[in-house]
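quick one before i forget lol
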Amino acid sequence: MNNRNDATVHCCAECGEEGGVSLKVCKPCMLVRYCNADCQKNHWSTHKKECKQRASELRDEALFKDPPAKEDCPICFLPMPIKLISCISLPPATTTSIPIYDFAIANEGVAHEAMETYYTCCGKTICGGCIFSFCKSGNNDYCPFCKAGWVVTDKEIVEELMKRVEANDAGAMCQLANHYYEGIFGLQQNQQKAMELWTQAAKLGSRHAHHGLGNVYYEGGDLKRAKFHTAAAAMAGHDAERCNLGTIEAQSGNLGRAIKHWTIAASTGNHTAMYNMLVNFKQGQGVSRDALISTLTAYNASCVEMRSEARDAAIRSYL
């Protein structure tokens, strides 16, 4: 970012009129201020190059910063994975163990199973391990968190969701959007309604909502909007979408940016991103040995953080 003295920051970049905080900042770059829209328009030809460069820098700063911590399960308080942790046995691959090619391998047959479930009764999202343990104790008909009885009919399920949507619950919005999109639980398939609900949840910061919107736009051929929502999901902590961003960049020939995304995703426990890092290391394409070992260590540590006996038992029930 260019160094600017107070006189420059607090006067109009076009006419030089001083105005302090009353001047309107150029939102894309946050570098200069203007008296009004006319001054901004007249100055654009001079400012255009600097503005676009700084705006791009700001987008990358936001895009590549560390994602927020994973949400914890409200029962076991362990970090919540979006998908099933399917690495039953972790090899002892660390910075001191060779070969470094060993890491927590995913069982592809179950790797895409959900490891979290949203409950309409209390608005809590609970991990598969806690649900499995609760059901094993003979409580199949109750919520593991609030102990409320299951709603039975499709109508009751939708009514519960709608109540929570009215309470501005992003999780309920995403669930209801999914139901409209798939046309289940007695609802007519309605993509427009699903999009409205996902958009509402996305404004509340839901990574799941951005994920849903990204998929719909991608399927519809709107790649610009698809990439926007994929990036928003990644920045909100959706590790699979972060990995997808890396793949998109690699396919576009931007391997350096791809590796940045894969490093972030792998460090939060994403198996596919870790595998992609390994492949590029083996091929001598942009991943150094030190970078791979560092990412591998973070990957294994993240997997260990998310594991428990209850979660492992839940995983085994799928196999």
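fyi Residues 6-61 form one domain.
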